[in-house]
Amino acid sequence: MTNALFSPVTASFITALANDVGAENVSTAPAERRLHARDMSAHQEYLAEVVVWPHTAEQVAAVLRLANEAGVPVTAWGVGSSLEGNPVPVHGGVVLSLARMNGITAVHADDFQVTVQPGLPYKDLNRQLAPLGLFFAPDPGANATIGGMLANNAAGIRTVKYGASKDNVLRLQVALADGRLIQVGSRSVKQASGYDLLHLFVGSEGTLGVITEATLKLWPIPELMSAVVASFETVAAAVETVVLVRGSGLEPAALEFIDATHARLLSQAEGVDLGDQPALFMEFHAAHQATLQMGLDTVQEICRSMGAVRFRATTDPTERRRLWHARHAAYEIALRAHPQQKFMILDVAVPISAFPAMVAHIEATLDAHALTGYMVGHAGDGNLHVLLPFGDEASYRVATAVNEAVVLQAIELGGTATGEHGVGFGKARFMTREHGPALDVMRVIKQTLDPNGILNPGKIFSL
Ligand SMILES: Cc1cc2nc3c(=O)[nH]c(=O)nc-3n(C[C@H](O)[C@H](O)[C@H](O)COP(=O)(O)OP(=O)(O)OC[C@H]3O[C@@H](n4cnc5c(N)ncnc54)[C@H](O)[C@@H]3O)c2cc1C
Fold this sequence. Notes:
This protein is of the alpha+beta class and about 475 residues long. It has 16 helices and 18 strands. Flavin-adenine dinucleotide binds near residues 40, 154 and 205.
């Protein structure tokens, strides 16, 4: 996209970049620009003019200072696993990849904390923490980076117990558009000092600053885990069970919903007998076998009382992994079932009491358009996805109309246009509807921190 607001990248700008980060960390090669032109969604791609890989916070700050003075846009990049075009450089300029800033700076095991660089993928972090018996809980599935997760406020299947990324961060170092490096938050678990700038940067999708270091909260790896899979005759029974389990005080570590179409597909692909009814996947963590068993007894009672037609519970690690593998592979299995098609992945969240109404609305909308869609949700926290296959321009338009209807209904039900994937440019058109005058306040904050608008332009606010 060309835009009179920004300056093109010139030869002298590239030379200055190379002076700041080293020529080997700057590329204008078409292959590199293409690799950083689209995320994991089906949204349109845009090419940056140059890709840079800084190694230090000071280098990030230097790149921003240079770009700010030259009026060149800068879009931060983790691994590009977003689903709403969040890291796509819609105005060209610089893609600033954090991939080479991927180390652990310090482990504070006694405080259950770790300080990391932003380009570290969270699965790599957890592999390195495992010998200490600690883990970082947010789990979006794709091997996202810590910086990308914080910038999108990513969540995933364990949010119902451990919270989203915003709940698992204590302190950030951030490079501002003008090249200042600031610290926000602290390593204290309790914080009441000044404005909560920490959580201003979390979820800001790289539009307010670039995260150069993060101190994260860690959790002890649970001693014991169980897996439960229960199927129900109706969607209403399944989702009402979600509400009952949440209300029982059981604290599931995961509480996931899949609809009948998806259950049928997973049963065929994974050899897990889910039948063709809507199902719930649950996980419980405990330090003692007796506590775990008591929880399983209660959840079985709830499921039976809601008319569950299938109920399987296990504490055996191999069986647990097998059951959860089906849920984790849900997206890939849907992709394989539609080899010639792309997918639109819807993401909305509503108050838990409105979850049944949200599911019913989606079912009715899909029926009205005679469309196959796969519903899968982090039901424990009211977050729902629909995987919508499309093949051509006409079916893309239908999928877009369904997305629109689903988002507007979520907002109507007191929810939000996005529970965890963020706004990017895919959801920008819903922001006025969701936030009203609060969006103007967001614009003022953006203007204050990034007066030249160089940081990830075209995101959150409409193009
Ligand atoms: C199959 C699949 C399943 C998924 N499931 C989930 C899920 O269950 N839950 C969930 O929450 N998400 C999910 N996602 C979405 C995605 O993985 C997350 O949004 C993730 O946080 C993106 O991280 P990333 O490292 O890929 O960041 P990118 O996509 O590279 O960037 C994300 C955003 O952060 C900005 N950014 C990157 N690094 C920084 C930084 N250091 N400082 C400031 N801004 C930065 C970018 O500009 C962009 O706006 C899924 C994606 C896929 C493909």
